[in-house]
Amino acid sequence: MLPPPRHVPLGPLNIAIFTIAMFVGCVSLSTAADFENEIQPLLTRYGCNSGGCHGKASGQNGFKLSLFGFDTNADYEEIVEHARGRRVNVATPEQSLLLLKSIGAMPHGGGTRFGPTSEAYQILKQWISDGAPAASPSAPRLIAIRIEPQERSLQSGEIVNLRVIASYSDQNERDVTKQSAFASNIDVVANVSDEGVITAGNESGEATIMARYMGQVAVFTAMLPHGTPLAEIPNFSPRNYIDTLTVDKWKKLGLTPTPVCDDATFIRRVTLDANGRLPTSKEVRDFLADPNPDKRALWIDRLLDSPEYASYFALRWGSILRNSNLAGADQASYAFHNWLKDMLSRNRPYDEFVRGIIAASGEWQDAPAINWYWQSRDDQLHQVTADTAQVFLGQRLQCARCHHHPYERWSQDDYYGLAGFFTRLGRKSFGQPPPYFASATATTGEKNPRTGKVPEPKYLSGDVAMFSAEEDPRHGLVDWMARPENPFFAKSLVNRLWGHFFGRGLVHEVDDMRATNPASNPQLLDALTQDFIDHRFDMKHMCRLMLNSAVYQLGSEPTDGNKKDRQNFARYYGRRMIAEVFLDSVDQATGTKTKFNGVASSARAVDLPHENFGSHFLDTFDRPRRVTGCECERSSGATLAQVLIMANSDETENKIANGQGIIAQFLKDQKSHDEIVDELYLGALSRYPTAEERSKTKYFIDAVENKSEAYQDLLWTLLNSREFMFNH
Amino acid sequence: MLEIHGMNDGNGYPVPDPARRNADSCGNRRTFLQVGTLGAAGMASLSLADLLRMQATAQDPAKPARKKSVILVWLAGGPSHIDMYDLKPQAPSEIRGEFRPIQTNVSGIQISEHLPYQARMMDKLAIVRSAFHTNAGHGMGSQWMLTGYQPTIEVNDNIYPSCGSVVAKMKGPNEPGLPAYVNLPRLLPLGKAAYLGASYNPFSPDSDPNQDSFAVRNLKLPGQVPIARLDRRRVLLGELDQLRRDIDNKGDLIGLDKFYRDAMEMVTNDKAQIAFSIQKEPASLRDSYGRNDLGQSCLLARRLVEAGVTFVTIQAGGGWDTHGDNFKQLKDNLLPKYDQAVAALVQDLHDRGLSEDVLVVSFGEFGRTPKINGGAGRDHWPGAMSILYAGGGLKMGQAIGETNAYAEYPTSKPYSVGCVLSTMYHCLGIDHKHVFYDPANRPLPILNEGEPIQELV
Fold first, then answer.
1. pLDDT for residue B367
2. In chain A, what residues touch B217 (CB-CB under 8 Å)?
3. How close does chain A come to B92, measured CA to CA in Å?
4. Interface contact flag, B249 A187, Cβ < 8 Å
5. In the predicted structure, residue B34 carries a pLDDT above the cut 50
6. Do residues B286 and B299 touch, judged by C-beta distance below 8 A?
7. Which H, E and C letters describe A269-310, residue by residue?
8. A107, A129, A151: which is the final residue of a domain?
């Protein structure tokens, strides 16, 4: 077998010429293979430098390569110079450890990677016998890769052969398909083989196929329409640009939406999503009876103006901002929670909100957000750097602390550039939390491992930032974030809000925005981002816009026209209530109140400032421990213990049968059967019972002698129904 | 228990192809990468297909699958290795302490005079004296020992999944209708599932089996609800709960249905009730384990693995953090209970023919300082620690590895945390290089270092 071609000029030429070019490449074998351009791709292709093997931080059995071959010089030294030179043996190349291990001729934890007759073996052997030269400084450098084609609309079962073309600094191009790694983000929509062959699957939607070659990535978009493209979306009236831009996407994909939900579903859903609580039975009755055609918009306004909007979003922010009373910060955690509530209820612009956190300085009484720094308490640098990127910029940068991000352009220099904004953050030695301040000099012993120096601030855009000793670099960071042209900041917030209201981000996960994980509707995400910037980072404006859209108000039941939709919001994606909201809902539906130590007796679960209020219920329903900046800490997934609490616990039973509870009250007030059943349904499910439910419940209640117990049984049933547990 | 809840890939799509997640750490680069780009939520949950594949691969068709299980006795606080399994009678008095070694029934192996029951059954035990790590904090040391990963920050919750959660995810319960992973007597700090998903958190009775009032939380019917009343409620729920099961994309609805059936089965069927009914054990056997929370938790653990629970972690009281009055604490309180309970458990498993299938393993987050402090105590010392193994198909009757003259560091066969835990996974037939994904989509093998201890397997 002959080695593959090198730096073959592909240019605009066709495949026939490419074949000839390959031949030319073979002829030019006399020059030794370039370590960076030829050898590193092989080590990557055969998994030698992967995270499970020699690429992990500690290496494997004393042989350590950079992950996916991002550090050519270090890898060269490791292979050629370390291990007393046994890894390559120029005199007898076939005795090189590198080759013996790879073909399994010597014991190798990673097994046989390729055979002695393989192309890879031949290339490596030739390179070694050529003296195992280092990467030539004059060798052309890889600039970028691209995939051809870039996107296709496919039918189930259809096959596409991808080609990955690498372009080099000498203007040459080269087909690197065979050396590239491929991955599909949704392989049931479009699967990709080792060789870059796409097979369209049975599910509809869009899949992004990533190709990776030597630190460069490119994507191919496979679209499997749900039906034939539509010229019109019938029975759907757009109300704002969210709707029109979503309709564009539906038309292209042949999706038809579920009709807009009824008023009862709407008031329950929007009250849960915007205020973190169920509507009361009275609110539901009044809303259903209200003839005003604008009542939905008016209700949305009311919710956004309510203090419960601030309480609920303070809970959501407090969770990802790690607001906790650990590290001796009980009072500070209350103060930070109240600060969040205050900023949200006054609807301060988002950049001001973020500045209050990232640039927090002083004592906790004045700047409660320093608890964000205090709870990270590692060295005020790494966790804060990673959280800043993830929470406020939608970038998962953690990987780049130790190695080049495998799916992104972020390098260690980018990571340490962002960390550089925090290197002068100082804290006093008293107080819990202690006062924080911007020091004139570095306060951290952390070094950028690549430079050996204290990290210097550099924006993620690549621009180096300079600050005088008097300036606090953190303000400079927020200034950069808040620039209208910042590509991350506004986009990340609107995507987070979208994810909150629609059950899935336009980019999913909401804080993992990258070229290889594109938005399901980039035009919509861009429009929302621009709108947010134009409205001076007005969060309530964005909430109002989203909640008033017809897309938000669609029913949740799948139809034939959208049953396979999981990305384009052709229906409302139902989901479980989060732990705190769920406990409050159980309280409300049963007319009881769970008490928490150390807060006012009126405080609901969503009002708790931190996570350390003992509650078996909340823990069982997976209240986050606030140990990450990731929304994903609220993992979904039902458990046995959750079901047991609802179906078979004294805790729930005592709420259902409570002497001051809702059933006791109804019976005391001598409400009629119909009134009681209506109230139970309105309170728990925010709707009146259907005719069928009326007759079934009547039959049940009539059959049970003890009426109090009978109604308790009905309430138990409602609480244990999926309809109650879900926001739909 | 089939974890149906996770029948999607985090994008809400079903996962039909079991082969695609067949990634081992040094394995096929392609599957490795494909997995790497899936959504984090998908990583945090196991698909039905996944589980079927694992159960299929876990079983060697040549020999019938036996129900392997593990009982981990967790000595929270850090047990004193030099006073238990690695005594140094030749060391100066400020090191060797008060306790003397005694001969065991395996020639050449000596352990503490305060472990007489275990000394008489050393042929059924194995000690590793040369385990170690490098973190002397309770939280970080515990997380390291329970998960195999050293965390970078001291937190009160799992950043990495506990070994019990890993087992729950990889194997499920040995018998349907029972939880896979149980903590006794209460939930263990740092015993949770982290990025594996809430479904793999431990189940706990949250009650002390040594108390007459012992009852599994929420397993017994609430007082005012007799079974007939629960039955009529269930019928009514079946009639009224008509919400479509396809409105969420995460599979939570289906998962809830599944757990609802499990829960009702546990509540109404005898299987789980009986498994937890420690009261059914003969008084003499209960006495032999010791009438205390540790003893009775060990007995209950045996009942549970016998019934089909796969992994039980027992929090062995507390108080192992003997900064003060180390010797008095150990000899008067900690060691007698511990010795009796573990010995009774191992003997009981042998008597029932379960010793090959059930691994008992005991350790804490670290050892203790060989140098005795001013308060007759010993402080935190991760440089050397002793691990006790019993059964599980491992080779018993050995003491493996040595520490230096002061029991400070291993001088032979230093075994890392990964070695300690991979030995345990080995007994369960779990590939410790199997890869999971954290929320940042980092591929994280079950263990990132270590191989099973060769002398044991």
1. 96
2. 616, 644, 649
3. 38
4. no
5. no
6. yes
7. HHHHHHHCCCCCHHHHHHHHHCCCCCHHHHHHHHHHHCHHHH
8. A129
For domain B4-445, give its CATH number from 2.30.30, 3.40.720, 3.40.50, 3.40.1340. 3.40.720
Q: Inter-chain contact B199–A638, Cβ cutoff 8 Å?
A: yes
Contacts of A704 in chain B (CB under 8 A): 232
Select from A194, A512, A718 the Cβ nearest to the Cβ of B30.
Answer: A194
**Chain B residues touching A725 at Cβ < 8 A:** 256
Mean of all residue pLDDT scores within chain B = 85
Greatest mean pLDDT among A13-22, A59-68, A371-380, B353-362: B353-362
Q: Out of A573, A604, A634, pick the residue that ends a domain.
A: A573
Does B178 lie at the interface with A, CB-CB under 8 angstroms?
no
A660-681: b (≥16 Cβ within 10 Å) or e: ebbbbebeeeeeebeebbbbbb
Chain A: nearest CA to B316, how far in angstroms?
22
Reported as a single tens digit per residue, the pLDDT across B282-308 is 999 999 999 999 999 999 999 999 999
| Residue A282 belongs to a domain | no
Residue A516 belongs to what domain range? 233-260+488-573
Q: What is the pTM of this model?
A: 0.82
Number of other CB atoms surrounding residue B106 within 10 Å? 19
Q: Which residues of A touch B259 (CB under 8 A)?
A: 638-640, 642-643
Q: Are A561 and A588 members of one domain?
A: no
d(CA A372, CA A378): 12
* Residues of chain A contacting residue B44, judged by C-beta atoms under 8 Å apart: 632, 635, 637
Label the pairing between strands B311-315 and B69-74.
Answer: parallel
Cα Dmax for chain A: 100
pLDDT at B22 over 70: no
Say whether both A251 and A187 belong to one domain: no
| Mean predicted confidence (pLDDT) in B4-29 | 39
Number of domains in chain A: 5
The reported pLDDT for the residue numbered A257 is 97
Q: Give A705's pLDDT tier (boundaries 50, 70, 90).
A: very high
Per the CB < 8 A criterion, the answer to whether B373 and B327 are in contact is: no
Q: What is the distance between the alpha carbons of residues B236 and A716, in angstroms, rounded to a whole number?
A: 10
Quote the CA–CA distance of A33 and A88 in Å, as a whole number: 15
Asked whether residue A436 falls in the same domain as residue A465, the answer is: yes
Interchain CB contacts (distance < 8 Å): A and B:
275
Tell me the nearest-neighbour CA distance from B447 into chain A, angstroms: 10
Closest CA to A643 of B244, B166, B253: B253
A449 confidence band (pLDDT: 50, 70, 90): confident
Residue A167 and residue A173: Cα distance in Å, rounded? 4
What pLDDT, on a 0 to 100 scale, did the predictor assign at position A24? 33
User: pLDDT class for A636, splitting at 50, 70, 90?
Assistant: low
Shared-domain flag, residues A583 and A705 = yes
Contact yes or no for B234/B228 (Cβ under 8 A): no
Task: Tell me, rounded to whole angstroms, the distance of Cα B151 from its chain centroid.
Answer: 19
Which amino acid is residue A383, in one-letter code? Q
The answer, yes or no, to whether residue B441 has pLDDT greater than 80, is no
Closest B-chain CA to A57: B448
Assigned domain for A137 exists: no
Percent of residues in chain B assigned helix, strand, coil, to nearest 5: 35, 15, 50
Judge if A441 and A456 occupy the same domain: yes
Backbone angles phi, psi at B102, to 5 degrees: -125, 155
Quick check: B228 contacting A, CB < 8 Å?
no
Give the tens place of pLDDT for each residue, B46-56. Answer: 333 343 344 44
Nearest neighbour of B253 by CB, restricted to A628, A709, A722: A722
Residue B12: the pLDDT is: 58
In a domain, A4, yes or no: no
Kindly state whether residues A26 and A83 are assigned to the same domain: yes
For chain B, which residues make up each domain, given as ranges?
A: 4-445
